[in-house]
C-alpha cells in the first residue's frame, strides 16, 4: 500500500528543560518521574507509525494518552519538538509558510468534536466557507457544497440556520464542510462523542459509506473501543504519550501486545471483530467421495466421532456422512455419494463470527469452512462460536 503519512521518532514536550527530559526518558524514567525532575510534560514520546492511502486509521486512548496531541501534529496545530512527519515523503515541519498554507488549504481538513460551525451562516454557507476562502467562483462552490450536503444526507436542509439543527445534523455539516475542500486526509478528533448512541451509530455508518465512495484517508480519534474496531482498518492504542500497539482490530483482539491492551479491549464486542479463520479447527474425520462406507465407519470409530466430512480427490467439500447412513450404505452395498447429506451449513474463512451465530446454534453438525472454490479449509463447532462470543 502507498504510504501517505510517515511519523518518525516524534516527541512533543512541554517545558523548558527538554533536553534533560529526553535524556531521562531514554534512561527509562517514566512520565511522572520526568515531570518531577524537570518540570517537562511528555505529551508524545517516540511515535513511529505509517498511515496508508485510503485507510481509516483510528487512534484510541484514555484522556491524557496523547491521541489528540498527535492528531494535531498532522496539520501543525502542534509542532513536534523532535522527529519528522512526512506527507507523501515531504517533511511538513520543514515546509515554507506558503507550503504550509497550501497544505492546510488543499491536502488536509479537520472535523471537530464541538462542530466549529459559523452560527451566522446557514448550512450551505458553512459548507461553502472553505471554498470561498480558496477563491472558487460562486456557482462552482455552490454546486460543490450541494454535492457534499447531499452526500452526508442533508438534502433539503441547505438553507436551514445552524441553530435549528440537532447535534447529529451539525456534525454532518462539519463533515460536509471538510469534504468540500476535497482533502487527501481527513482528521476527526472524537467527532461523535457528544452525540447520543443512535445518532452516533448512524454517523459511523455514514462515514464508512462516504469513505468507500471517496476513498479518503481518515485519521479518527476516539476513546470508545467498539467505535475504534467498527471503523478502523487499523487501530493504534496510546498510553502516556506512547504507542502501545498498532494492528487490525482482529489482530489486536486475538494477539494483544500486553496486559494493558488486553484490559483495554476486554469490553469490545468480540463477535463483531473475530472472523471464522481465527476459531476454525481441522476436522478429525475426513473421507473421500470414492472411499467405501466401511472405510468411513473405521475412520469415524478411530476418531471417536459420529460423522465425517466428505471431499473430492481435490478436497472440494461434498457433504457430511453420519454413522447411521454409513452403516446403512454398507448393508445395502451403496456408495458414500448415495447417502451423504449435501444440504449442510457452510461459511467462508473471512466471515465474521456474528454472522454465523444463529446457524451455529441450530445446526446439527459443525459448520464447514470453505473457500471460493468450495475447498474444505476447516470446521467451526458450536462451542467455538459461543466461546468466541
UniProtKB/TrEMBL annotation:
Localization in the cell: Cell inner membrane
EC class (word): translocase
Membrane topology listed for this record: Peripheral membrane protein
Residue ranges of domain CBS in the record: 280-336
Domain (ABC transporter): residue spans on this chain: 29-265
Pfam families in the record: ABC_tran (PF00005), CBS (PF00571)
Keywords, sorted A to Z: Amino-acid transport, ATP-binding, CBS domain, Cell inner membrane, Cell membrane, Membrane, Nucleotide-binding, Transport
MF terms in GO: ATP binding
Cited InterPro entries: AAA+_ATPase (IPR003593), ABC_osmolyte_uptake_ATP-bind (IPR051921), ABC_transporter-like_ATP-bd (IPR003439), ABC_transporter-like_CS (IPR017871), CBS_dom (IPR000644), CBS_dom_sf (IPR046342), Gly-betaine_transp_ATP-bd (IPR005892), P-loop_NTPase (IPR027417)
Catalytic reaction(s) noted: a quaternary ammonium(out) + ATP + H2O = a quaternary ammonium(in) + ADP + phosphate + H(+)
Presence of keyword Isomerase: no
Highest taxon in the source lineage: Bacteria
EC number, UniProt record: 7.6.2.9
Family recorded in the similarity comment: Belongs to the ABC transporter superfamily.
PANTHER family: GLYCINE BETAINE/PROLINE BETAINE TRANSPORT SYSTEM ATP-BINDING PROTEIN PROV, GLYCINE BETAINE_PROLINE BETAINE TRANSPORT SYSTEM ATP-BINDING PROTEIN PROV
Self-association and partners: The complex is probably composed of two ATP-binding proteins, two transmembrane proteins and a solute-binding protein.
Identification of the protein by name: Quaternary amine transport ATP-binding protein
Organism: Peptostreptococcus canis
Amino acid at each position: 500500500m502507498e504510504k501517505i503519512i510517515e511519523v518518525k521518532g516524534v516527541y512533543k514536550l512541554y517545558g523548558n528543560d527538554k533536553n534533560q527530559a529526553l535524556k531521562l526518558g531514554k534512561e527509562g524514567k517514566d512520565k511522572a518521574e520526568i515531570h518531577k525532575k524537570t518540570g517537562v510534560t511528555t505529551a508524545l514520546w517516540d511515535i513511529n507509525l505509517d498511515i496508508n492511502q485510503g485507510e481509516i486509521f483510528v487512534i484510541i486512548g484514555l484522556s491524557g494518552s496523547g491521541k489528540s496531541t498527535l492528531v494535531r501534529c498532522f496539520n501543525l496545530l502542534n509542532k513536534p519538538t523532535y522527529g519528522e512527519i512526512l506527507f507523501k515523503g515531504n517533511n511538513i515541519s520543514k515546509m515554507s509558510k506558503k507550503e504550509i498554507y497550501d497544505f492546510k488549504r488543499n491536502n488536509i481538513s479537520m472535523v471537530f468534536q464541538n462542530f466549529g460551525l459559523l452560527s451566522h451562516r446557514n448550512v450551505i454557507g458553512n459548507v461553502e466557507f472553505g471554498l470561498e476562502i480558496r477563491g472558487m467562483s460562486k456557482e462552482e462552490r455552490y454546486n460543490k457544497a450541494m454535492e457534499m450536503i447531499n452526500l452526508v444526507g442533508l438534502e433539503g436542509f441547505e438553507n436551514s440556520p445552524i441553530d435549528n439543527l440537532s447535534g447529529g445534523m451539525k456534525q454532518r455539516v462539519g463533515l460536509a464542510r471538510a469534504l468540500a475542500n476535497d482533502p487527501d486526509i481527513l482528521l476527526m478528533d472524537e467527532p461523535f462523542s457528544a452525540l447520543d448512541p443512535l445518532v452516533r451509530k448512524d454517523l459511523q455508518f455514514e462515514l464508512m459509506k462516504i469513505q468507500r465512495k471517496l476513498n479518503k484517508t481518515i485519521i479518527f480519534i476516539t476513546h470508545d473501543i467498539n467505535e475504534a474496531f467498527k471503523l478502523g482498518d487499523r487501530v493504534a492504542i496510546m498510553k502516556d504519550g506512547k504507542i502501545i500497539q498498532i494492528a487490525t482490530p482482529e489482530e489486536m483482539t486475538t494477539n494483544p501486545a500486553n496486559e494493558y491492551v488486553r484490559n483495554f479491549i476486554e469490553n469490545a464486542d468480540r463477535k463483531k471483530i473475530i472472523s471464522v479463520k481465527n476459531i476454525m479447527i481441522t476436522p478429525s474425520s475426513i473421507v473421500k467421495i470414492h472411499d467405501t462406507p466401511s472405510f468411513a465407519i473405521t475412520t469415524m470409530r478411530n476418531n471417536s466421532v459420529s460423522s465425517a466430512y466428505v471431499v473430492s480427490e481435490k478436497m472440494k467439500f461434498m457433504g457430511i456422512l453420519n454413522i447411521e447412513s454409513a452403516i446403512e450404505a454398507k448393508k445395502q452395498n451403496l456408495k458414500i455419494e448415495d447417502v451423504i447429506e449435501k444440504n449442510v451449513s457452510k461459511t467462508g474463512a473471512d466471515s465474521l463470527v456474528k454472522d454465523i451465530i444463529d446457524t451455529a446454534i441450530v445446526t446439527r453438525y459443525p459448520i464447514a469452512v470453505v473457500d471460493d472454490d468450495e475447498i474444505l479449509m476447516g470446521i467451526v463447532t458450536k462451542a467455538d462460536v459461543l466461546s468466541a462470543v
